[in-house]
Structures are given as C-alpha cells and as structure tokens.
C-alpha cells in the first residue's frame, strides 16, 4: 500500500494534459463513426456511387477517417503520459501525408464539378489517374517518415505533432507538402469561383429570376472549406509558433475538427436526402437521391446533356 501511495505522489498528471487527451479520444470515437456512416451510405447506394463526384467524396472521407485511430491513440498517449510500443507515434504519422492527399482530392472534386456543370469535354480517366497517383505518393511519404532522413513525431505532453527537424530532409518534405497543399486549395477556389460565375451568367442569359440556392450551396461548401483549410495550412506550415500547449492544442484541434466534424456536417446540411438516410434507422428507406442537371434548371436541356448531383 505504501508503494502505491508513494507512486501516486510521484505520478501527478497535468490536468490540461488529461483534458487534451480526453478531448481527442472522445472526438475520434464520436465523429469518425458518424463520418463512416456517411461513407457507407455513399458506397452502398448505387445512385450515389454511380456518380463520380460521390466516388471522389468516398476517397476523401476514407483518407480523413484513416487519421481517426492516430488521434485516438494520441489522446490515450496524453492520458497515460507515455506511448506504449510507440504505436501512437506511428499512427499519427498518417496525418502528415493525409492532409496533403485530402487537399489534392478536393481539387479533383472541384475539377469534376467544373467538367459536369460547365460541360467540358475531356476524358474522365484523368481524375482516376490523379487519385491513383495521390494514393501512391501519400503511401510513399508515410513510408519515408520511417527512414533516417525524415521525421514526424507525436509525444506525450506535447499537444500537436511536429516534423522532426533534426532529420536532414524533414524541412524540405514539409515545404514541398505545404506547396502542394496550398496550391491545391488556391486552384480549387478559383475553379469554384468559375463555376459560380458560369451559373450566374447562365441564369442572366436565360432571363430567370429564381433563387441562387444551387449556386449558394456550392459556394458555401467551397468557401468554408477553403477558408478553414488555408487558415490551418498557413498556421501549421508558416506560422513558426513556439511549441507551447496554448498554441499547439488549438492548431491540432482545428485539424481534427476540419477533418472529422466539418465534412460530415456540411454534407448533412447541404444534402437533404443524405440527411434523411443518415438519421433513418430500419424500415423502408425513402428515395435518397435526386439526379438533376444544374445547368438544365437554367435553360432548355440540350440533347445528350450531362446530369449533375443536386446538393439538397
């Protein structure tokens, strides 16, 4: 008994560290299953998976959910104040390539919307090739973090992950990833701006006075994701803030919320049929998807026109 009391006196955890650990564990346990349910709906419903835009969303959701185990183990690491077998560190290394992969996949999604809505004619296989390359490069970057030349660490008592700058090429890897990520965000934003401009121009040319619901939905999703992604990207890659808890915790928490909470929230808000399916348990499911042509609401449909997903 005296040994237990003595050990307890020596082992005094920082309350903030415990709170941080509990926060990460609870968020990963709650938000990731919700996100996985949305991905499951996309995969199992033929009307969703038959459209390329939702297949791209499945890729995005998959890479974001792959960060879930790492965040959970990172929270557990904070509570225990040590990392059993270094598992948490290994799992959190997924976050380094994952945030870059998600940025490029979001760019592919923007290209898909541009192709469909503006009726551009180029091979759809280009999008598939980009996604394959993204997965290959992401897996390659993850493997590089186990070599003596690159490092990415997660430690108990430190409330965010950091590149290990003692390794010779960690800085170069971070900078290359940040250029890819920020470039993808910028191009995606330009693409969505072009889409909105095209739809507005189309509406005025047709002389219609209907609301901007469809344009607004796309702009809201793209605008929110762009602002949050760019803010986090600049803060993490170019902020050069001191590694102190008051700075580290909000930065990593922002990444967790942006990947586990923001996408499913926007999907459910902007897609009424998905929302009905998500909260429907048992019984006969109502129709979950309407295929409409965004462009066709603005003008008479040309023969052979391409239909696009309705975010309602």
UniProtKB/TrEMBL annotation:
Record key words, sorted: Membrane, Transmembrane, Transmembrane helix
Keyword Lipoprotein in record: no
Domain of life: Eukaryota
Transmembrane segments: 18-44, 56-77, 97-117, 129-149, 176-199, 219-239, 251-270
Gene3D superfamilies from the UniProt entry: Rhodopsin 7-helix transmembrane proteins
Protein name: Serpentine receptor class gamma
